[in-house]
Design a protein that fits this description.
The structure is a single chain. By secondary structure, the chain is of the alpha/beta class. The protein has one domain: P-loop containing nucleotide triphosphate hydrolases (Rossmann fold, 3-Layer(aba) Sandwich), CATH 3.40.50. 35% of the residues lie in helices and 21% in strands. It has five helices and seven strands, in the order ββαββαβαβαβα. Strands 1-3-4-2-5-6-7 form a seven-stranded mixed beta sheet, with helices on both faces. The longest helix has 17 residues. The relative contact order is 0.17.
Length: 200
C-alpha cells in the first residue's frame, strides 16, 4: 500500500463522537512511551502527524486520521505508567474499553510492545483482555533498532512463549523500527489485504 494522504479528522473522549461513516478502522495502542506516535508517523510518512513526546501519556484522547480517504488510523491513549492522576488513568481506560466494546467499524487493533524489554504482565493482561472480548489484534514490536538482533530475538521469542501459554494460535506479529522503517510495508500491506477482504 502506498500512503498518498493522511489527514487528522477528530479527537474526542467518547466513542459516540467518532466519525459516523463506515470506513474500516485500525487502532494503535500500547504502554506509555512505547513509541506509538513515532510508529504512526513512520507508517504514514508524515513526521508531524501524531505528536511525539519524551513525556509518557501525551495521547489523552481518541484520535482519528483518515488514510487515502479509505480507512481510519486510530491513535488511542497508552495504558500503564504515566505521570497523571489515578482518576485520569481510570477515565482513559473507561474511554478505551467503551471504544472497543462499541465501535463496530474497528477491524483490528495493533498492540505495540517494546522489543527492548522482557515480557511485561501489563502487556500480557491487556492482550488477554482483547482476546477474551473477541477483539481482533496484531502485535507490533517497536524499537528493534535499539538492541542487537540477537537480544531483540530473545525478547520477542520470550513474549511469544508467554502468549502461547494462553493462546492456541498467536495473532499476527510485526517487527518494526520507526528509525529504519523496518516493518512499514508489512503492516501497510496487511491493512490493504484486510480491507480488500472486507470489500469481497
Amino acid at each position: 500500500m502506498e500512503v498518498k494522504s493522511a489527514t487528522f479528522v477528530i479527537s474526542n473522549s467518547d466513542w459516540r463522537k467518532c466519525p459516523s461513516d463506515n470506513r474500516p478502522e485500525y487502532a494503535f495502542i500500547g504502554r506509555s512511551n512505547v513509541g506509538k506516535s513515532s510508529l504512526i508517523n513512520m507508517l504514514t510518512n508524515n513526521k508531524s502527524l501524531a505528536k511525539t513526546s519524551v513525556r509518557p501519556g501525551k495521547t489523552q484522547l481518541i484520535n482519528h486520521f483518515l488514510i487515502n480517504h479509505e480507512w481510519y488510523l486510530v491513535d488511542l491513549p497508552g495504558y500503564g505508567y504515566a505521570k497523571i492522576a489515578k482518576t485520569a488513568r481510570a477515565e482513559w481506560m473507561k474511554m478505551i474499553k467503551d471504544y472497543f466494546a462499541n465501535r463496530e467499524q474497528l477491524v483490528s487493533t495493533f498492540v505495540l510492545i517494546d522489543s527492548r524489554i522482557p515480557p511485561q504482565k501489563i502487556d500480557l493482561d491487556f492482550i488477554s483482555y482483547l482476546g477474551v472480548n473477541s477483539i481482533p489484534l496484531s502485535i507490533v514490536f517497536t524499537k528493534v533498532d535499539k538492541l542487537k538482533q540477537r537480544e531483540t530475538a530473545l525478547n520477542v521469542n520470550a513474549f511469544k512463549k508467554a502468549l502461547a501459554e494462553e493462546w492456541e494460535e498467536l495473532p499476527p506479529i510485526f517487527i518494526t523500527s520507526s528509525v529504519s522503517g523496518t516493518g512499514r510495508s508489512k503492516i501497510l500491506n496487511y491493512i490493504e489485504q484486510t480491507n480488500n477482504s472486507i470489500k469481497e
